[in-house]
Specification:
Blueprint: E1 13-18, E2 21-25, H1 71-88, E3 98-100, E4 108-110, H2 113-119, H3 125-145, H4 149-168, H5 173-193, E5 199-200, E6 203-204, H6 209-219, H7 224-237, E7 261-263, E8 281-284, E9 287-295, H8 302-311, E10 315-322, H9 324-335, E11 341-345, H10 350-364, E12 368-369, E13 386-387, E14 390-393, E15 398-401, H11 407-423
Parallel strand pairs: 9-10, 9-12, 10-11
Antiparallel strand pairs: 1-2, 3-4, 5-6, 7-15, 8-14, 9-13, 14-15
Helix pairs in contact: 1-2, 1-3, 1-4, 3-4, 6-7
GO molecular function: ATP binding; ATP-dependent protein folding chaperone
Keywords: Chaperone
Pfam families: Cpn60_TCP1
Length: about 425
């Protein structure tokens, strides 16, 4: 730093501005001190190495395993044996429990083969493929029959073990697969013949209630209180009836018998509620309007709504969906006391929804309004309405009770559905629902 006046005293001080910068200050002895930054050192950025031209991101490689020396087969079989041994201990009336580690909570104690199958993962990739193969077999059996995943795994283990033996002896694998398929087709009729509940002289040989209780108790972890309750439920609703098991909120197991038809659909608006204490809609001698399409305007229902107002009967509208523009006039007239009405969405979706509406129409004696049948909502009168003895609608469920006058039509509908079930392919999904 240079100065023109020799009387000036140069004082050079460094004041730290930051960990990587400093400033030089100048002061005059004859005048008041002032500070002026003269230079600031900028922080040095770290030197980044120039990437090499030969750098390439590492790609995930596919592992290939060839079975020339049966090493891959042995690995697959080891995974199958391990999971079958683990799941097999839960099978039968003397089945034991399996403790599963839970990453986000305490360990789980289960005796259900399906649950155990979902939790098994092995470190060796080939052994884990064997686990996935038998898991797929168990899942398919469970989807088709609702149970039997453990039995499928045990049978698969035996088939694989015997198949490996004959393959090692030199048998052609294609011929082996064809032989297994041919044997399975021959065994299915024999299994049906020796089953307990079968047709004999046109009548079913019924299984005793205590036998049903035994089977249900084994499935419930040898809990005979649950088994006896399920046997009692089947006794009341019939062997072809519908039994649903749900988680309760009380400390005791309870059995509830529902007379009529119940499905999981609630009211579209709380303004329809007639019982504020239970937040439910309850109608007696109610009429049902069944529509297999979307209702967009209340003018489409003028004829039916006018009949309900004049004759003063409650009306329940069951449709694919109802737009707010069509729903608002119904709510407004209900609040004024001019109309007793409620609206719900039709249960299920797609083809299932159409079958559900047909079931409701059969039960109540009504007609489903569909455009493809040439019947429009504007032209429909009260003759298309179904009749019920009582209707109870809650936030997420609807119960329809009839007087039994349509029992003959219901029986024909049941026979029709049973015929469809018998002729259908068991490996395809059949969307036919009957909740009666």
């Amino acid at each position: 730093l240079c100065s023109k006046n020799r009387h000036e005293k140069i004082i050079s001080t460094e004041q730290t501005m930051s960990p990587c910068s400093s400033a030089t200050l100048l002061a005059n002895s004859k005048t008041p001190s002032f500070y002026m930054p003269l230079s600031i050192r900028r922080p040095l950025l770290p030197h980044l190495p120039t990437p090499s031209l030969g750098f390439r991101p590492k790609c995930l490689a596919t592992e290939l395993h060839f079975n020339h020396d049966f090493s891959a087969t042995k690995k697959l079989q080891a995974g199958v044996d391990l999971v079958a041994e683990l799941v097999g201990v839960t099978l039968g009336p003397k089945g034991r429990n399996v403790v599963l580690q839970n990453k986000y909570g305490p360990p789980k104690i289960v005796n259900d083969g399906e649950t155990v199958l979902k939790e098994v993962e092995l470190e060796d990739p080939l052994e884990n493929i064997g686990v996935k193969l038998v898991r797929q077999a168990g899942a398919r059996t469970n989807n088709l029959a609702g149970d039997g995943s453990t039995t499928s795994v045990v049978l698969a283990r035996g088939l694989i073990a015997e198949g490996v033996k004959v393959l090692a002896a030199g048998m052609n694998p294609v011929q082996l697969a064809r032989g297994i398929e041919r044997t399975a087709r021959a065994l299915i009729p024999e299994l049906k013949r020796i089953s307990r509940e079968k047709l004999k002289d046109g009548a079913f040989i019924q299984v005793e209630d205590d036998e049903i209780a035994d089977v249900a108790a084994v499935s419930a972890g040898n809990d005979y209180s649950v088994g006896n309750m399920i046997a009692e439920a089947l006794k009341k609703v019939g062997r072809k009836g519908v039994v649903r098991i749900e988680k309760g909120r009380s400390t005791e197991d309870t059995l509830q018998i529902v007379e009529g038809m119940q499905f999981d659909r609630g009211y579209l608006s709380p303004y329809f509620v007639t019982d504020c204490l239970n937040m439910s809609v309850e109608f007696e001698n109610c009429k049902l309007l069944l529509v297999d399409k979307k209702i967009t305007n209340a003018k489409e229902m003028v004829k039916i709504l006018d009949a309900a107002v004049k004759e003063k009967y409650p009306l329940l509208i069951v449709a694919e969906s109802i737009e707010q523009e069509a729903l608002a006039p119904i709510i407004r007239n209900k609040l004024r006391g001019l109309l007793k009405a409620a609206a719900i969405k039709a249960p299920a979706f797609g083809e299932c929804k159409s079958h559900y509406l047909d079931d409701i129409a059969t039960l109540t004696g009504g007609t489903v309004i569909r455009d493809d049948l040439g019947l429009t909502l504007e032209e429909a009168g009260k003759e298309v309405l179904g009749s019920t003895l009582k209707v109870v609608i809650r936030k997420d469920s609807t119960l329809i009770v009839t007087d039994g006058s349509t029992q003959d039509a219901v029986d024909k509908r049941i026979l029709q559905i049973r015929g469809l079930v018998e002729v259908c392919n068991p490996f395809k999904h059949v969307f036919v629902l009957l909740m009666i």
